[in-house]
Amino acid sequence: MRMPAPEAAALAQRDELIAEFRALLGRDAVIADQTGLEVYENDGLTAYAQKPMVAVLPATTDEVAGVLKICARRGIRVVPRGAGTSLSGGALPLADGVLLGLGRFNRILDVDVANRCAVVQPGVPNLAITTAVAAHGLYYAPDPSSQIACSIGGNVAENAGGVHCLKYGVTTNNILGLEIVLIDGTVVRLGGRHMDAGGYDLMGVLTGSEGLLGVVTEVTVRLLPRPETVRALLMGFPQVADAGACVAEIIGAGIVPAGLEMMDRDAIHAAEAFCDAGYPLDVEALLIAELDGPGPEVEALIARVAAIARAAGATSLRESRDEAERQRFWAGRKAAFPAVGRISPDYYCMDGTIPRGRLPEMLGIISGLTREYGLRCANVFHAGDGNLHPLILYDANAPGELERAEAFGAEILKACVRLGGVLTGEHGVGIEKRDLMSEMFTETDLAHQQRLKCAFDPDGLLNPGKVFPTLHRCAELGRMHVHHGQLPHAHLPRF
């Protein structure tokens, strides 16, 4: 993995840059000492670390705009960072760049119950939104397993999902408006509190853009009413492939659970030891299905799902008896990542997506790769929508194991693409999958994507080194820069 080489011209401006930032933000909001910068040297992809040249912590949209104007004028690269929970290296800093932290943007600005939306700053933790609106009988549907820590701005950057995205969608399906700051300091507002924004779907472009196009400073999120009835069903299977087949049968029957999650034996045992969720320990795979809606509908759907599970070979079936038990079922699943940390010194969390019907085939491929690379793999899946999170277990202190884990992970992602899927479901490309983009996209595809980046960031200063395996200057891609509304060579006819 390589990042853009530090530029001497940028490093030479460090002292002047720090002085200019302190004049704008105050001394406490500018971190320049080496000990302080260690906090920002990596994100959730901890295998890679690199200190930024300087870190800044603006508190207002105007301050963000001021920081970006300074960087644009000086030609300094910028890496936006939320809570730093990215598992793809999306917030990995640059040695000659500015780390722009948004942790001080931590307020819920408005809760609009009548219009079922809330206006929040990007540093607000995901779960805090639901907590803030719970008294109104509302909640924010996307719920990544890291929702207690991850920020809503990071959710927008990576288009995060969660265990309930099968029925309620990922981030892009649950936001109504954005305020963003472009690299030249221009503040742009997209959407609002209304159902649909007119014109081009620029919110769709920005959501999942991984900090390459602009910096999010405000988000209007959609709120949903809490369902009348919610029940969860645990289903244990003697074979992992049987559980995968059951997933396909449930969806094929026209049933769309609120969540449909899968764990294999290693993940089950780790989660049970970690939080005593009540999981059966004599099965090879576990499905958690959650059904919600009116009471009679939920009762009927639970019965149908249970019948499908029995026909698929389930040897264990358990329905949540109350809300506390339902929460315990999910506590084990949501704690699967930290739980696996107890059975291995390190693990490498993958994120790919396949068609649901090919889940048994994919599980067979992963099993073969564990033997080929000599590394264990605990599988935790958003099975309902085919989003896989294999956890490759390794020891970073053992020579060569990190490299084997990375090669193992790359083969999983290549297999996802071969089976008709994609490289990422919700973690983003970042640096982790950057060099695999050509497995999914042609050079022409990638060039068109980079032209879009050029429209927002003509000098390539926002989060460079991420997503694109080969960087091009915008001029190479035929970019035309419109400056203050004036076209170059205005005397030439245009068609």
UniProtKB/TrEMBL annotation:
Entry GO MF terms: FAD binding; oxidoreductase activity
Record domain FAD-binding PCMH-type: where: 48-226
Alphabetic keyword roster: FAD, Flavoprotein, Oxidoreductase, Plasmid
Gene3D superfamilies, sorted: 3.30.465.10, 3.30.70.2740, Vanillyl-alcohol Oxidase, Chain A, domain 4
InterPro entries documented for this protein: FAD-bd_oxidored_4_C, FAD-bd_PCMH, FAD-bd_PCMH-like_sf, FAD-bd_PCMH_sub2, FAD-linked_Oxase-like_C, FAD-linked_OxidoTrans_Type4, Oxid_FAD_bind_N, Vanillyl_alc_oxidase_C-sub2
Cofactor: FAD
Name of the protein described by the UniProt record: FAD linked oxidase-like protein
Origin species: Tistrella mobilis (strain KA081020-065)
Lineage: Bacteria, Pseudomonadati, Pseudomonadota, Alphaproteobacteria, Geminicoccales
